[in-house]
Protein 1
Amino acid sequence: MSTYPPLNALRIFEAAARLESFSSAADELFVTHGAVSKQIKQLEEWLGVRLFERAGGRVKLTDTGWRYLIQVQDGLDLIANATSQLLQPDNQRRLTINSTPTMAMHWLMPRLHVFRESYPDVELHLVTSDRDISRLDSPFDIAIRRGPGDWPGHIAKPFLEECELPLCSPALLKRFPIESPADLAQHTLLYADTRPTAWQRWLTLAGVPELKPACGLHFDRFSLALQAALDGLGVALGPLPMAQSLVDSGQLVAPLSSPVVPVRDYCWIVPRTASGDSTVASFCRWLEQESGQMRPFPAAGLNDNMIAHAFPED
């Protein structure tokens, strides 16, 4: 028996395992549900193990399936990276960065020109997503996510501290002044599904855990909540230093200087198969260098006694 399982079956297994659905895998790969089911069955028979539990029309990876998925993803990523590098001109290296939208828009993109000046032969491909890296549709060289996280098959390191503070437009603040946390009761608070407990955590640390805002607006992504704050629709719990440039430019203001709530750090995440790549290492070092040049908090005069320690982050 060959030691190489059917490669097409591996590709289908990876999609079905990542999406936790035969139907979704079929849609992604443009095949039928029956074709996916047949390939998975053939792979299980070839391996002599069960990769999925099937119950009530749903599928779930077995423990063996989870372990196999990690190794298969590493192998497919290695093939994809090798192919990408092979197709690049000899003097050019393509680096795929997968970042959350807010990080990409407000912190990474304004700084990429610095990296490009030092590495002009590196072609950057920036992809944005809020999904966990295990559920991404395409491989990456470096991902940027808030951590710490459970990222088997990868190496990761924190490189940027983040804190939260209420931010709003100058025009909104002029109409409805905010001199204390209690004044937020007359405002619309802007919520993001990706940070569901952020406001309650901040209000608790500010001493007003029972505060009821005048209204609430909810968004599926934080980048939309931040844009709503820019448009004067309400008060966002702004991440700093993500939104530091918006504060520095006067587009947003921080009416309250405390509590400044530290939350989860941003981490760079690299597949183990790419850990020896010198270009990947250069980009990770650059991220750390850039973050070291940031001011950790927005307002002058803040001291350690004014910085609250957060609850365990969501």
Note: Residues 75 and 273 are 8 Å apart (CA to CA).
Protein 2
Amino acid sequence: MNRITARRRHPLARYAVLLFALALLGGVYTVAAPAGQSADAAIASGKVDDVAAGKKLFEQSCASCHGLNLEGTKTGPTLVGVGAAAVDFQVSSGRMPAAQPGAQAPRKQKYPWVNETTIRQLAAYVQSKGGGPAVPSDDAVDPAKGNSAKGGELFRANCIQCHNFVGAGGALTEGKYAPDLNSSTPKQIYEAMVTGPQAMPPFNDSTITPEQKRDMIAYIVEVRGQKDPGGFGLGRIGPVTEGLALWVVGISLLVLAAIWITAKRRQKKS
């Protein structure tokens, strides 16, 4: 019988090889892959001071509702992964910090400490906790570079159910409502689309592309600048208010006409 000498492998050898391959792959990816939004975008771009300052602002003005680690509480949702765009939208429009809990945070006058610098710092801190949609560039929200005709088609297909044909807003359920867009800046409109604040669903870039979002912004800016050719616009809420106004005014005129005719007849008889 021939002796076959074989060197037996250790039972843990295959696991060691697998761990080595994973570690090698992770190292290559770390070196070669570009920095993404899901990473700490603020720190990666050198804005460490903004993150530190934003953390202090958050602890002073936001942590009571959203938690010290952005984990959320009974009175406020988690902010992990919402991104800088959500912070910029909510704070720049005065919705946050909220004055009091409610079905929906309304647009209001901003607090005295809120300015471009503090908003940027808060956004950098929240962005560092899980990433998320970034604040859009000026070019991405420039209505002059959009196609308002295409934007109108997209707006009518995706937004009029809540915001009305001209962005005048409307009532929703459970005390919520779609706000009018007359006071919203192009950047805030873009940020609302990518973050989906409150009752609004988010529209990511695979649903509505950045170019299409800019087209929609061009339409909103154009239509809210139009003058009503018929005179008083009645809030531009739509056919319901127009029909109601016509009904009330029309019935009132008919009643007045009937009273006038009756009075004339009485005068003739007397």
Note: Strands lie at 170-171, 177-178.
Protein 3
Amino acid sequence: MRHGKYRFIIGFLAIPLALYGTLVISPFVQDFQISLTDWTGLTPDKHYIGFDNYRKIIHDHLFWQSLWHNVLLLLIVPIVTLAFGLFFAFMLNVGGRRKGSASVAGVRGSGFYKIVFFFPQVLSVTVIAILWQQIYNPDPEEGVLNVILKDVGLGSLTQSWLGDPKLALACIMAVMVWANVGFYVVLFSAGMSSIPTEIYEAALLDGAKRFTTFFKVTLPLLSDTVATGWVYMGIIAMDAFAFVQLMSVNNGGPNEKTDVVPLLLYKTAFRDNSQYGLAAAMGVAMLVVTLLFAVLTLRLSRRERIEF
């Protein structure tokens, strides 16, 4: 009976595991193999060169600068996005005035606000990037942001937003937050709606205010959801390829001040003499960094599960 049970389980898992190995694991293995060669990607000729490509990226200043930009995105974008998501979700579900016998309620019009916050999710990254390019347009007559600043008497604050090395990366970060915060408003709202109202009622009877209720009740009960969101946003921040390529000046400019590793990988493979082997080594490095981030995040967020 036991052997028959295992054969039954293996029979169901064999095909999914085979597909996963072929479509997910195999490309990673092939990427590592390519990283050990000098393949250009344009001819079938390639020669094994060991870890020379890894030595090149270790001594490549542009690679480390791009990786630092990824780290900045990793530190800032998830924190700001999740913080806004939690705040708006709390206000839309718990932060309003109580109505009648309801112990907790969201602000008036919360259903409409959820739709508004979620709207960027239905737009593609390309549409969002082009939209914000026009908002950041430095032309004082066409750039939406500069026109607004000028009209309200703050003309001295107008900038070449994406052309200023000190502001360009921060502007792209702001767009990434705007594009993703709506998803987490809806995600956290779903999590908060599953928390029994009796818990909030007990907190109110104890005299807890909104601030205390959020940090002592809501946030601990959403810890698993927040940890998952952190990993997901971290992976988005580690990529950031589409936003930087579409919005930055000359693909990573000005002066490579917005360059990120995925974009550098793309340019190395398809523009800079087609160095596929070197680009593959950058891909392996990104894989290692992303896995370390995911493991550390899940490890640090591990805690005793709260049942309710």
Note: The domain at 59-307 is CATH 1.10.3720.10 (MetI-like fold).
Protein 4
Amino acid sequence: MIKVGGSLGADMSRACADIRALVDRGDSVVVVHGGGAEADRLADELGRPKRYLTASGGRRSRYTDAAALDVLVLGMLGRLKPPLVTELLRLGVRAVGLSGADGGMVTARRTPPANVVVDGVRRVVRDDLSGRISAVDAHLPRTLLAAGYVPVISPPAYDPEADPESGAGLLNVDADRFAARLAVALEADWLVILSNVPGLLRDPGDPGSLVAEIPCEDLAGYLDLAGGRMKVKLRTAGEACLAGVPHVVLGDGRGPSPVLAARAGAGTTLVKGVP
């Protein structure tokens, strides 16, 4: 399982070359991607302001009302996925683009109304179309893998409890957690999460301060070193490790061979201690 960040841009082709190498040696590969950065660029083009929620604990997340969800889905499924799939096809990889909603693969429960800060004002938000993953059905990706395909999957997820009169049914879910839950459901041997940093750093300004290995049982002791999205990635990696994924790595997607380098030990590796 390989999670690539939408912010990698041109570096995505290097990850695709590594995926081709893994497929050539007989590995089954699933690719997961997000698309927040592409959705932000698209929102700017469309003149739609980007908005964020800040919860009481200080956690900041995307405010995904219906208009924002439209942009997010278009960014992920219309802007980011097609070039990723076509690059893999160009390299001879039989890639198939999917969303979590396809076949009811990933279902989620909508976040309930919450008292949060939006645009500097505290209020109750009731129209946020975000959620938490509730279940993963791995049948569709397993079927594609067995037939020799490489599934390229992203949010959104499907909300089976959506009110049909509201026009809803899709939910924005965190792409890193999406990848981790899929990896667990597929009983993957590897989960490689690529981003635009070397891994977890003790000093964000010093690439040489990389934390090479973290016991997932001791994850809480390392969370203070992470900020922003890295904190989510670190928690997600720890959850996947504890759930049984044998090899979990937070890798740097900017290198010449990012996936193979991560599998060879580059980045931050989550390890499960001996009982």
Note: The longest helix spans residues 66-90.
